[in-house]
Amino acid sequence: MFAIIGSVFVLVAFGQQRTCEYTGGPNDRYTLNLTSVAGYRLEYASSNHRYYYTPCYNNEICPQGNAQFRANAVQYTPGSNVCNHYLSVDHHERPEYIFATAAWGFRYEDGELCDQTQQPRDLNVYMLCDENFNSGAYVSDVYEYEPCRYSMQVRTPLACVPESTHNSNCQWRYRDNQNNSYYLDLSSQKGKYIRGGVSDNGYEIFYSPCQNGLHCYQQTGSEITVQSILENEVTHTCEKYLSEWQDGRVQPIFHNSNPDQIHWSFHYYLSEKCNNGQPGEQTIRWYCDNDAVNSTLINATYDGDCRWEINVKNKLACPSNEKYTHFHGQSLYDLKPLYKKYEGML
């Protein structure tokens, strides 16, 4: 089993705190307020590098030759005071709210010049909503996904936006470019449990739709409730947690380009890391099957690269389901005034 916090973090305030607040999402109704952690020094240690990040401030000093650069994110050699590179500079960039991951994304493109690409280093910082913590923030992972291009994940309850009433009830709507609306209502699945089948090495995936309905006891002795876990069938203990429900904030992606493979996919990044240190990810897909009255497991897989998948079929995932298209037996698409009246309720 793995501890819920796999990274080392240090919080040190620098100078006088300033307001650090952003708006985003639909009509700028969502707020990301990082004032309480602005200027704190967040640390992440890997086997090869040590990273420091100060939200909202350029408080990191990185000597390069005779010059000293100020930045908000830097890379150091472990066990030394040698700054290898500065990765980004904060110019008060505005983050974008990413519905598919329930996260805020900052994009920085003016880091130290890269010898390999002859372009400035760039950094994406993802502020992930994690309600298992009451306050603060910590860096859960940093990795270089391409030469001199970095990704950083920061977990914090400060990134949590007010959940939509419909989404928290396990109901979503997708509108395409032709203004057609498609609905996914899984609210009836709350309280159910889906088992992934025992793998050859004795592990089984459990999934509790629409809620954090599964317990996972960590090495530290603490317990958290999550949406999906990997269980050791020999000891009947939680080996690691694979995703958190996040009150429905993670929006599904609707796939309908292939009429035979219509489905909705959820992508969760609040997972524990794998043994190799890679960040975890779980993809849960709901496939349309008009003959599947109950949720039926198609398969549960692991791709070997810290990505876990569960595929389920149910008629609830079909756009032709009358729950989406009819009201008391009448077609909502044929009765435009009625459809318009009840559209927001479905």
Please tell me about this protein's structure.
By secondary structure, this protein is mainly β. The chain folds into 2 domains: 21-159, Cation-dependent Mannose-6-phosphate Receptor, Chain A, CATH 2.70.130.10; 168-331, Mannose-6-phosphate receptor binding domain (Cation-dependent Mannose-6-phosphate Receptor, Chain A), CATH 2.70.130. The protein has helices at 165-168, 322-325, 336-342; strands at residues 21-24, 30-33, 42-45, 50-53, 60-64, 67-71, 73-76, 83-88, 96-98, 103-108, 122-129, 138-146, 149-156, 171-175, 181-185, 194-198, 203-207, 214-217, 223-226, 228-232, 237-243, 253-255, 263-268, 281-288, 296-302, 307-314, 326-327, 330-331. The strands form 9 sheets. It has a 5-stranded mixed β-sheet with strand order 9-10-11-13-12, with no helix packed on it. The chain has a 5-stranded mixed β-sheet with strand order 22-23-24-26-25, with no helix packed on it. A 4-stranded antiparallel β-sheet has the order 3-4-7-8, with no helix packed on it. A hairpin with a 5-residue loop joins β14 (171-175) and β15 (181-185). The protein is globular.
List the topology elements.
Layout: E1 21-24, E2 30-33, E3 42-45, E4 50-53, E5 60-64, E6 67-71, E7 73-76, E8 83-88, E9 96-98, E10 103-108, E11 122-129, E12 138-146, E13 149-156, H1 165-168, E14 171-175, E15 181-185, E16 194-198, E17 203-207, E18 214-217, E19 223-226, E20 228-232, E21 237-243, E22 253-255, E23 263-268, E24 281-288, E25 296-302, E26 307-314, H2 322-325, E27 326-327, E28 330-331, H3 336-342
Parallel strand pairs: 11-13, 24-26
Antiparallel strand pairs: 1-2, 3-4, 4-7, 5-6, 7-8, 9-10, 10-11, 12-13, 14-15, 16-17, 17-20, 18-19, 20-21, 22-23, 23-24, 25-26, 27-28
